[in-house]
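Retro notes (design track)

What went well: tokenization of the new backbones is finally stable.
What didn't: we kept losing track of which sequence belonged to which structure.
Fix going forward: every design gets posted as structure first, then sequence, in one message. First example under the new rule, 427 residues:
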């Protein structure tokens, strides 16, 4: 309401100003053509000129439109086809979301030529064809998508890689993604697809180099990153450990490993095994000793007792550990084995028996049985062998076993010969 009042007041003010101007500035227009003359006031003539200009302007525009009816029709037709194409595209995308692949492909392809976004049409149609199992048609549509829009290399390449991964054509997908990664480093979707491709082809070296980039982009959680890195290094160390002649590659892998993985017990034991196979037991001993100093683990203690380095120094160190952990059965078992390496038979017997008292173990019993057998005490050896078997039997899965009571064996029903075969035998 206030705006309306303001407009009315402003209009009245302008009208009054214009009327005052007409009264203060008199004048007239005189137009003479031959014997005919036309005279009017200055302001009325000015209004007539303005009106004539407007009429002439719109008349010329109308004339120009009438002189180009074909081009105007083409523009109108193009707009109409584009509107229809957009409607078909929307119907196709809806069908694609609903899982009606055949209808989606048909609508999207039909609308692609008239669509303002043919790339979207062809990519979506390729996806629909792929879900139908029509892989050749999907590849054809991807080629048409590449030709339809300039600069579509990335979008087409990523779609093609995803379709290859779905078809389990992992090598081809990895080749495409590697090329995309060179042109678009740190592209989030490319990095995600690369992770999937590396896992599919078991390319652990590629995966371990990819993980820091995934972490920097926050594309994986901390837990998943640690799991994948641990798996990659475990597989790589295991592969290199099969070739003990090239232990330097294993050592380089350990040096490249992230710090948080160097405290992982599984990787420490695996690396120690690789070092032993590569005749680097001294390095393995230092590794296990420092690792046990940082965090105590029974697997590391047991592996330490199997090393063949300076057995006397190992025994002294392990006995210092025993002062802090006097009832540790795994440490006592390790001390017994180190005592054997030092030919301390009595001490080995004491440590094995102490380990057995703390926690009955088939391994400790087997060590005692072997020791007593070599000491000539065969009765004790047999006793510990039986205990070892009993303890081992308890760890076996529960499965049916034969009993001493007689029972009927399952028998098969006699197989009846075909009627024709009986007749031939009788004949």
């Amino acid at each position: 309401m206030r705006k309306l009042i303001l407009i009315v007041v402003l209009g009245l003010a302008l009208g009054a100003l214009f009327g005052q101007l007409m009264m203060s500035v008199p004048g007239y227009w005189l137009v003479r053509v031959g014997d005919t003359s036309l005279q009017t006031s200055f302001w009325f003539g000015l209004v007539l000129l303005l009106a004539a200009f407007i009429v002439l302007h719109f008349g010329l525009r109308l004339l120009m439109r009438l002189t180009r009816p074909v081009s105007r029709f083409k523009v109108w037709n193009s707009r109409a086809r584009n509107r229809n194409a957009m409607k078909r595209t929307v119907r196709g995308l809806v069908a694609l979301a609903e899982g009606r692949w055949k209808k989606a492909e048909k609508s999207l392809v039909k609308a692609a030529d008239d669509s303002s976004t043919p790339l979207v049409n062809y990519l979506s149609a390729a996806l629909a064809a792929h879900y139908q199992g029509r892989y050749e048609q999907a590849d054809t549509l991807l080629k048409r998508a590449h030709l339809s829009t300039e600069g579509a290399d990335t979008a087409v390449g990523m779609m093609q890689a995803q379709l290859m991964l779905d078809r389990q054509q992992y090598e081809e997908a990895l080749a495409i993604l590697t090329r995309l990664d060179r042109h678009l480093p740190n592209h989030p979707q490319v990095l995600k697809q690369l992770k999937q491709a590396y896992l599919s082809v078991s390319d652990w070296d590629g995966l371990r180099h990819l993980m820091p980039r995934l972490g920097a982009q926050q594309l994986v959680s901390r837990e998943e990153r640690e799991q994948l890195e641990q798996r990659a290094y475990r597989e790589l160390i295991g592969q290199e450990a099969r070739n003990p002649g090239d232990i330097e590659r294993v050592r380089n892998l350990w040096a490249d490993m992230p710090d948080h993985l160097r405290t992982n017990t599984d990787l420490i034991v695996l690396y120690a095994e690789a070092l032993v196979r590569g005749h680097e037991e001294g390095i393995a001993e230092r590794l296990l000793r420092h690792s046990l100093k940082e965090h105590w683990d029974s697997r590391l203690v047991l592996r330490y007792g199997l090393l063949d380095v300076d057995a006397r120094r190992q025994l002294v160190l392990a006995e210092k550990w025993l002062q802090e952990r006097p009832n540790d059965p795994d440490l006592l078992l390790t001390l017994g084995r180190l005592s054997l390496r030092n030919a301390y038979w009595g001490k080995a017997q004491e440590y094995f028996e102490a380990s057995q008292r703390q926690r009955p173990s088939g391994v400790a019993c087997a060590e005692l049985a072997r020791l007593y057998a070599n000491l000539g005490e065969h009765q004790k050896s047999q006793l510990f062998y039986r205990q070892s078997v009993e303890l081992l039997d308890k760890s076996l899965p529960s499965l049916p076993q034969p009993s001493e009571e007689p029972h009927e064996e399952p028998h098969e029903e006699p197989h009846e010969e075909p009627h024709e075969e009986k007749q031939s035998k009788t004949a």
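Added context from the reviewer: Confidence is low (pLDDT under 50) at residues 414-427.
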